[in-house]
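Problem 12. The chain below contains 439 residues. Write out its predicted structure in token notation.
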Amino acid sequence: MDIEVRQRLERYFEFAELGTNWRTEILAGVTTFVTMAYIIFVNPSILHEAGMPFAGVVAATCLSAGLGSILMGTLARYPIALAPGMGLNAYFTYVVVKGMGIPWQVALGAVFLSGLLFLVLTLGGVIRQVVRSIPTELYSSIAAGIGLLLALIGFRNSGIIVASPSTTVAMGNLREPHTLLAVAGLIGIAALLAWGVKGAMLIGILGTTALGAVFGLLEWKPQMYRFSDIASTSFQLDLPHALELGFIEIVFVFFFIDLFDNVGTLVAVGKKARLFDEANRIPRISRILVTDSTATMVGALAGTSTVVNYIESAAGVVAGGRSGVSSIVSGLLFLVALFVAPVFGVIPAAATAPALIIVGCLMISHISEIDWSDTALAVPAFLTMTAIPLTFSIANGIAFGFTAYTLLKILRGEFRKVNWLVYVLTALFIARFLYLGSE
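Solution.
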């Protein structure tokens, strides 16, 4: 790379201000990608149950994640990777398509319209005001709650925790080979971090994968995927019929969950990466929101459900990622995966699960920023950070905390101190609870 070009790029990505460098950012980007590469096959598996062609969704997943992450890195300059969201793909398949009997082409049209609504409201400044209306006291609890969610996912994927009909969750079989492999990975990553080894996350994931290969614990089923497979899902969305469904029942739900899942992830990753400004606000917030809404529309056109910011980006932040370069690296790797997807499928859950547990451990530190002596702040914060993992939804956690915050302010006679938009959002959250309760 030409020295002058390199210096310009370093100034654009604010390397000096963020205290980062090329090696660190590239390593962080690879770490984020490896941690979330599971989506390349998990997303198609879920959408395939809606009748969508598996190979086409693989290509659409890689393309939307690649372009979305690159756009995030270049336009918004944040270390946040994007991909089709877990939870939203399940809502797409099991509620909209299978539950309501709506063709997947129409459901894709609804996803596109939700992204368009997101973009219009972003350009109009509405979404920015929504984000700014979130009480700063809840920022730390959102970050901690997402940390707990990541840890829960890691414990579940590793087999350390399993479902139990009598106690909800229980200890898994620690003698099971894949669980033992995950435990070894957890100890290895923790030890590397304790020694201050740079790249501890990536080294731990790859080392655990290699250990699994030695003991014959990897499952690799080579299958060729071609970019041309995307033709089976691309531009198949049915917008006219999606408009007939109305915004409230489907489009608004896609939009609502997408908005607050993204806000939660943004807050959590921004807190961990120390990217908030002195006023505790997120710089370039509009660019981030434009990126997300654009990625969702591109994803719908390519043939996949809603594209969101990924909480696994926190693994890259822990690895040192601070600028958009790490997102660009993750995005480029997703594009490469278009042609060699089976290679990344070899990385087992037992290798990535320990990384998620460690990231959760590091993110829980934000609870120290909460004023636990003030009940009006402590209760909403506690509800937020516990509801996120226990309901398996960032949006639900924010809704619980937001609603509790508003109600306690009113009951304490401080209703004049609450932003008018907070009241509007609280009303929407309550309406959402009533809607979900009627399901």
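Discussion. The longest helix spans residues 247-272. Students who got a different answer should revisit the alignment rule from Section 12.3.
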